[in-house]
Amino acid sequence: MPARARRPRPAVVVLWVLAVLAAGCGVQAAQAERSSPTASRTVKLRVDGRERSYLLEPALGLRTGKKAALVAVLHQEGGTPNGVAKETALQELRQAGATLVYPAGVDHSWDAGKCCGMPSQQGVDDVRFLDAVFKDAAQQTPIDRRREALVGYSSGGMLTYHYVCARPGRLAVAVVVSGSLESPCDAGITVPDVLTLHGKADGTIGLNRPIFISKLGLAPRPAASTLGILTSSAGCGKSVTTQAYGAEVRRWEGCRGGTVEALLIPDAGHGWGNLDASRRTLAFLRLRLLAG
Fold this sequence. Notes:
This protein has 292 residues and is of the alpha/beta class. The protein has a single domain (42-290), classed as Alpha/Beta hydrolase fold, catalytic domain (Rossmann fold), CATH 3.40.50.1820. 32% of the residues lie in helices and 23% in strands. The protein has seven helices and ten strands. A ten-stranded mixed β-sheet has the order 1-2-4-3-5-6-7-10-9-8, sandwiched between helices. A hairpin with a 2-residue loop joins strand 8 (240-244) and strand 9. The termini are far apart.
């Protein structure tokens, strides 16, 4: 007689059922997380016939009917959205009522005027791209279009200055970390509240004199010259210099629009961490974008 098939022991059957249920719950949880309106996700869109993308991190804990501020963070040359999100560490703003977006530059670079790389050489219009990101993000999640900010690091800071000049009055706040103005800035512009962080020992973008960077093929405009052009274009009054926050603080008031403030940090170089930029940027955004 053929041998009878062995029946699974009850304990084995129970364990198997539990494992299947657990796996199913895990899939459902992952799907729920992906479909959650506050889940971080990469968003794709087409701008000028080219597929572009940005990383979206929606605000957390918004009350029904309330809209978030929007902070767009621009990576440095060779950077990525995920990389700059980790390095800048601004995610606590999500709990304070801000949605964060991290646009991706073409070939990890930006068209900021004279700089940088392939986007500048081919005339990729990153001002139009940022316009599209702001508009698209407001369709993805509730955004208060009156409270939008740009934070730019290095070449991302160059694009931030470019956007401030190209779209006068468009932003509420702009923060530039180790950046320079590499594009025209017309007279009569309206500026947002601007914070510039710059190391006095920056070996890439000088404080008072240009430094030739062979990788970029240019000498970026020194920080002092950039601030002079920006504040002149905005009709600011004379700067007042004080010492605070462990830095030399130069402040311009009477500008069309907001104020311009530069923190020049002694013995600091070009790097984000070297400038304690996360803490300083968070404090400025909380005060100028999220207060009230």
